[in-house]
Fold this sequence. Notes:
Elements: H1 2-43, H2 73-85, H3 88-91, H4 95-113, H5 123-128, H6 147-152, E1 157-158, E2 161-162, H7 167-185, H8 188-197, H9 199-209, H10 221-238, H11 256-260
Antiparallel strand pairs: 1-2
Helix pairs in contact: 2-10, 4-7, 7-8, 8-9, 8-10
Amino acid sequence: MIKKHLITCSVILVLFIVSQLFIGSTTIKRKSVSITTIDRAANNSSASTLIRYKKDANDDINFADESIPVNNANVNRKLKYSLKQHSFRSVGSNLLHRKALELFPVIEPILKMYGIPDDFKYIPLVESGLCSGTSSRGARGLWQFMPGTARTYGLKVGKGVDERLNLKKSTVAACIYLRELYGEFNSWTLTAAAYNLGSIKLQRAIHKDNKHNYYLMHLNAETGSYVYKLLAMKEVIKNPVTYGYKNTYSWLKPSEELLAVN
């Protein structure tokens, strides 16, 4: 009797083990079919509507290591538009790259010394762009300081002297100003926006929208596109070929105008 019972138990145990092996092999097959089905769907254009979000090429773009909400359709549209506007097809000149070649070796170490993110070196390219001289509002130099602001941050303006045109001195003044703005806004993106708009006006805009995020705020056209211009400038300088520019700066010749501001 005990023998029969043991045999019965052994048979049941064997059947149980076999059933588990069968179930396991079926699960593996199902998983394999599932992965194959997904791969096929990804290659099928009719299945593209099932993909909610495809990683955008601009996901790697950021300003001062602060992320950009590229999943926001409005943000993505503005970024793509700014990149297009800064492509060689739109600009039609290599002056921006020539400026970068000459200005960055002077600007970069000063930014680093004052603890300002490297991405702020693109401000002079955006501020002065392809033009130079004094703006209609009186701003002058590569950092486009107004006379009063320049004096506030240690630059001499007047009596035949204008240190806004001195690259090193104006960069130091810009760094002091930027550090002050960052202390107020605790965001490098908002610091860049405040550099363009002014801290008082930006504070008003933040309170009005009740948002502390540049990309989600309602700002005037100039400031609303300002950081996007910096992002685009960063991209075309770092990846010239992608945007139609040449892949080397070695052929560029220094301009007399740029040499004069050093």
